[in-house]
Automatic annotation (TrEMBL):
InterPro entries: HotDog_dom_sf, PAAI_dom, Thioestr_dom. It comes from the Bacteria. Residues 59-134 form the Thioesterase domain. CDD domains: PaaI_thioesterase. Pfam families: 4HBT. Keywords: Hydrolase. This is PaaI family thioesterase. Belongs to the thioesterase PaaI family.
Length: 153
């Protein structure tokens, strides 16, 4: 069950978790339907429902969905941890697909492996309702303090 009283702090100020979920569920993440259960600079957890809108032609969840969830959770938690010092950008995403999913609810949990001055490394594990490992990945993030340089070539 979602704890709607939890707030996200640091880079986001004091924002209720439900409000943060709306903020982060835009674009492709909205299509996936992520529901954040926990979001701090030390841990992030979200879940979503498997459905045909996420399938590849063989009728299982497209691997790109797992890659997106892994990078999204790592980037959001990494941003919360970095706070007002800047932004993070993903520079490597390595996701392994271990078990196919066709139905049910999947839950992803991200935790930091390393957080340093210039980079972070996060691990994200995705399980099904029976706690079976579906996918796992890690994302290396660059901590960008001079945010004016982002996307300026």
């Amino acid at each position: 069950m979602t704890d709607t009283s939890q707030t996200v702090t640091d880079a986001l100020g004091a924002m209720p978790l439900a409000e943060a979920s709306l903020l982060f569920n835009q674009g492709f993440c909205e299509a996936i339907g992520l529901e954040y259960l926990e979001l701090t600079g030390d841990r992030v957890q979200a879940r979503w429902q498997v459905g045909p809108h996420l399938f590849q032609p063989a009728g299982i969840v497209n691997g790109g969905v797992y890659c997106t969830v892994v990078e999204t959770l790592a980037s959001i938690a990494g941003t919360v941890w970095l706070g007002d010092r800047g932004h993070v950008v993903g520079v490597n995403n390595n996701t392994d697909f271990l078990r196919a999913a066709r139905t049910g609810t999947l839950t992803a949990t991200g935790t930091p492996i390393h957080r340093g001055r210039t980079q972070q490394l996060w691990q994200v594990v995705i399980v099904d309702e029976q706690e079976r490992l579906i996918a796992r990945g890690q994302v290396r993030l660059a901590n960008i303090e001079d945010t004016g340089r982002l996307a300026n070539g």
